Amino acid sequence: MIASKRLPKLALLLCCVPLVITSASAASRREVVKLPVPAMMIYPGDKIEEGMLREHGFFKKSVAQLSIVNRMQDVVGLEARRTLFPGKPIPKNAVQDPVVVKRGSSVLLVFKEEGLEIRAIVEAQESGAIGANIRARNPDTGLSVLGKVQEDGSLLAEGE
């Protein structure tokens, strides 16, 4: 008799448990995250400024697996590598540090070793941002050298 009284309560409890789990998972699917998005079209080579961005809400589940920029300060000051569309999340690989040295341009190379300093004009074989190591070629000798891009746009090559 006692078992027959518990049976309806147990059945009612088991029916309600899936509803609680379902509503909890539905709530997590509807969770909104704020992400920076372009407020206007941003073209390759454009330096991204704060006024070019705005925050937009996206469902967390829809953007959870994407490799996108999550904070506005992570993208301000960077350069667009490809066209960024208004209202769309910004992929991490669509932005880069601003390019200081462009491939094919003439660049000042400074070589330093034990107090000796040699300066020469070389041709950049690669584009690079500040701090990047890029290859350059001396047009007179044809020799290649690896140099670190400096803030002033020159390359620094140091001896061992």
List the helices and strands and how they pair.
Elements: H1 2-29, E1 32-38, E2 53-59, H2 60-63, E3 79-80, E4 95-96, E5 99-101, E6 106-113, E7 116-124, E8 128-129, E9 133-137, E10 144-149, E11 155-158
Parallel strand pairs: 6-11
Antiparallel strand pairs: 1-2, 3-4, 5-8, 6-7, 7-9, 9-10, 10-11
What can you see in these coordinates?
Helices cover 20% and strands 34% of the residues. The strands form four sheets. The chain has a five-stranded mixed barrel. The protein has a two-stranded antiparallel sheet with strand order 1-2. Strands 3-4 form a two-stranded antiparallel sheet. It starts with a helix and ends with a strand. The protein is of the alpha+beta class and 160 residues long. The protein has two helices and eleven strands; from the N terminus they run αββαβββββββββ.
